[in-house]
Amino acid sequence: MYRSLRNQIVLSVAIAALGGSVEAHDLRSSSLASGVTKMPERELVHTPVPVVQKGRLGIETQLGEFEVPIAVSRDWTKPQEDVTRAVIVIHGWPRRDLRSGEHAAEEAGTVARTTLIVTPQFLTAGDVVAHNLPSNILRWGEDDWKVGKPSKDAAATSAFEVVDEILHRLANRSIFPNLKTIVLAGHSAGGQFVQRYAVLGRGEADVRGAQVHIRYVVANPATYLYLTDERPDSNGNFAPFDSPSCPTFNHWTYGLQAGVPNYSSRARSVDELKARYLQRDVIYLLGTADNALDGDGQDRSCAAEAQGATRYARGQAFDAYVHLLDPRTTHRVYRAHGIGHSSYLLFSSVCGQAALFDKAGCDSASE
């Protein structure tokens, strides 16, 4: 306990040295020298990433095989008989927080010893050019990968298809004969990705066929994908939203009325998507201190403001909303008290470890 607390204090100080706005980058590769000022996310997202994951995941397309950078904590080309859990971590908007899953596993200790950590990286054209990467590396617009839009290359592939391929590989019983649980987790923009994927994603079919349970951990996203035209009012009640004041409030990525990406072309009706989503195992992992009205990188559009004033308020409201749609849903909130907008601190918190690894101790879980 002392080691974990001490590490969180050190990590908090390190993040503060980087400027305090914490869609935390990989602190192990960042300079923590005094006087360093962290660039705001809205500026940082347009700059090339300093590090590209060394591994490659092949994605078959109509134009042949393309690749995505990826890190996998074990060799998943050989049988891994002791692996019982896999945690897939989706990075945040600036594409830099690449070690938050591994850090959380280290903090969790023995309970995570049989866990595989998988971290893909969704690059932009600027990243590819800056690192002189080959033409078959998939690349997306800064705002496109997180919402399932096609890549900006010849393949025109949704980042959701990358997760489909990861799940397909994990469902291979010749490699993972004892895998029982897969957790798809993402923070901030990664949380937006995970929540939208939980609604539209096709990869769960492979996993279910292999009799593996899948959980979705949606951590501190800026917004949520609503399944009807209802939104919370100032009293916490839900009613159809006044659309003339914000005509796009229910368009993708805030709703399903229009603009849903082509990835979902084989999807069924909205009612079927809603029913399937409410039946899935979803945890909304919220940092109670992620409550700034002007948080760095926060969506301030009218469609986002219709969901609440802050990331924390929007998460609380969305949990109430899904229980309004189905009081029996198992969706639940885990609240990490005192944690702000940091993937490292949130995933390694007590409730973060409970969400990712089922480690006991989260006393703020709610059904």
Describe, in plain words, how this protein is organized in 3D.
The chain is built from twelve helices and ten strands. The protein has 367 residues and is an alpha/beta fold. The chain has one domain (2-357): Rossmann fold. Helix 3 (100-108) crosses helix 12 (350-357). It is globular and about 55 Å long.
What labels would you give this structure?
367 residues; alpha/beta; Rossmann fold; two-stranded antiparallel sheet; disordered N terminus
Present the secondary structure layout:
Blueprint: H1 2-17, H2 41-44, E1 55-61, E2 64-72, E3 85-90, H3 100-108, E4 115-120, H4 125-130, H5 159-170, E5 181-187, H6 189-200, H7 204-209, E6 213-219, E7 230-232, E8 238-240, H8 270-279, E9 281-287, H9 302-305, H10 311-325, E10 332-336, H11 343-348, H12 350-357
Parallel strand pairs: 3-4, 3-5, 5-6, 6-9, 9-10
Antiparallel strand pairs: 1-2, 2-4, 7-8
Biggest β-sheet: strands ordered side by side in the sheet: 1-2-4-3-5-6-9-10
Largest sheet: 8 strands, mixed
Proportion of residues in extended strands? 15-25%
CA(first)-CA(last) distance: 27 Å
What is the architecture at the second tier of CATH?
3-Layer(aba) Sandwich
Kindly provide the radius of gyration, computed on alpha-carbon positions and rounded to a whole number of angstroms: 19 Å
Q: What is the CATH topology descriptor?
A: Rossmann fold
Count of distinct structural domains: 1
Helix and strand string, N-terminal first?
Answer: HHEEEHEHHEHHEEEHEHHEHH
Query: Using DSSP, what is the number of strands?
Result: 10
* Overall pLDDT: 89
- CATH-assigned homologous superfamily: Alpha/Beta hydrolase fold, catalytic domain
**Number of helical stretches of at least 4 residues:** 12
Low-confidence stretches: 1-36
Q: What is the global morphology?
A: globular
CATH class: Alpha Beta
Q: Helix content range of the residues, please?
A: 25-40%
Structural classification: alpha/beta
Organism: Ralstonia flatus
Protein name: Alpha/beta hydrolase
InterPro entries: AB_hydrolase_fold
